[in-house]
Amino acid sequence: MDFILNEDQKMLRDTVRRIAGEKFAPIAAEIDEKEVFPSDSVSVLRDNGLLGIQIPEEYGGAGAGMLSMVLVVEEVARVCCSTSVILTTQALASDPLLLAGTEEQKKNFLRRLATGDCLGACGITEPGAGSDVSGMKTTARKVDGGYVLDGAKIFITNGGEAEIVTVLACTDRDKGNRGISMLILDKGMPGFTVGKKEHKMGLHGSDTRELVFDNVFVPADRLLGPEGSGFRTLMTTFNFTRPAVGGQALGLAQGALEASIRYARERVQFGKPLSSFQGMQWMLAEMALGVETARSIVYRAASMIDTEPESPELAKIASMAKWYASDVAMKVTTDAVQVFGGYGYVREYPVERMMRDAKITQIYEGTNQIQRTIVAGQILR
Fold first, then answer.
1. Which portions of the chain are predicted below pLDDT 50?
2. pLDDT digit string (tens) for 301-346?
3. Cα–Cα distance between 126 and 330 in angstroms, integer?
4. What is the pLDDT of residue 266?
């Protein structure tokens, strides 16, 4: 789909593909095997100005836009999904600041995230509140000079690595969604502790933690947007970040497809390459169709953010992009394992890792069942 990319975007894609091939691909299997956070990869992303690719230049970013970010995420995920999560999570932490922050908050916290001075995280999910954000139990009680935060979050990506965390909490439970606010926390605040590390099916190199808040005092100037606006800010943030998850899923699918094509050409069975059998050809063709159609809607969603960020269609297209691309990633990576046969089931080849990594794209930032609900609500409105 080069025809929709300008020359700068093509150059960015090619540059990131080279970086990913040289720096991330060689260590992807080791990161997965040892379940270690790729700190060296963070340095590479930072040094190349990729952690704030979509953030305006006045706040320390590259100002390249959302389509450029999707291209970066796609190319990184193509070889190492655990590293690509660093990019998507940085956006999930920074976009609320970009959307609702004061100038002072943007110049302080957003700039630090955009330049890669530190990593960020976003505290949303709780033991009893996943897709049902309004069911959260974490509270922020108003006191003189700020708020006292109590509660816990789970499954927080970058939770143990982040220095800035945007946290959702109830400031007025009686108001439902309108009683949810978003606060900005620094690592090391008294009462803010990082809990257990989760051991996951996939994304072994991504740090996933529990965050615990015990009587944490949060100054009033850390309130992000007006009190009670947190839910609205989060939903708008998801419109901007779901296409990036779509890009991540797209990269996984592309990487699995490329590996499958190489293997089918090289693997000989019954005296002929696998690629010479019609059944294999059709399977690869269907995988390629899924990847190309996913790319179309992911790029469309990203382009809409760049050109029509206020469009009433954005929530629908963003949800479709995340939903469709992640389903494609799951199918293509599963088919890739099938193409490899027994070799696909062992860790000598990357496709079993890609299959494990792909599953989470159907779950986080809103399960694909939630995306169906969002789309249905939009088209029936």
1. none
2. 999 999 999 999 999 999 999 999 999 999 999 999 999 999 999 9
3. 26
4. 97
CB half-sphere exposure, 15, CA atoms < 13 A: 13
Report the pLDDT value the prediction gives residue 110, as an integer from 0 to 100: 97
The tokens for 164 are 């800035």
Q: Which residues are registered as beta bridge partners of 183?
A: 167, 223
Pairing mode, strands 120-123 and 164-170: parallel
**Degrees, nearest 5: CA angle 350-351-356:** 105
Cα–chain-centroid distance for residue 266? 34
One-letter amino acid for residue 85 of the chain? V
Helical ranges in the chain per DSSP H: 7-19, 25-34, 39-47, 66-77, 81-100, 103-105, 111-114, 230-266, 278-307, 314-340, 351-359, 368-380
Task: Please check whether residue 79 is in contact with residue 315, taking contact to mean a CB–CB distance below 8 angstroms.
Answer: no
How far apart CA 63 and CA 82 sit, in angstroms, is: 24
Task: Identify which of 219, 218, 217, 199 has the alpha carbon closest to the alpha carbon of residue 207.
Answer: 199
What confidence score (pLDDT) does residue 133 get?
Answer: 81
Identity at 176, one-letter amino acid code:
G
Longest dimension (CA), the chain: 79
**pLDDT at residue 129, as a whole number:** 79
Burial class (CB in 10 A: 0-12, 13-18, 19+), 270: exposed
DSSP state of 154: E
pLDDT of residue 381: 87
Cβ atoms of residues 333 and 361 within 8 Å:
no
348 is catalytic: no
What is the Cα–Cα distance from 240 to 247, expressed in whole angstroms? 12
Query: What three-state secondary structure class fits 257?
Result: helix
Containing H/E element for 214? strand 208-219
Q: Specify whether the CB–CB gap between 186 and 117 falls below 8 A.
A: no
Instruction: Quote the pTM value.
Output: 0.96
pLDDT of residue 315: 97
pLDDT in tens, 262-310: 999 999 999 999 999 999 999 999 999 999 999 999 999 999 999 999 9
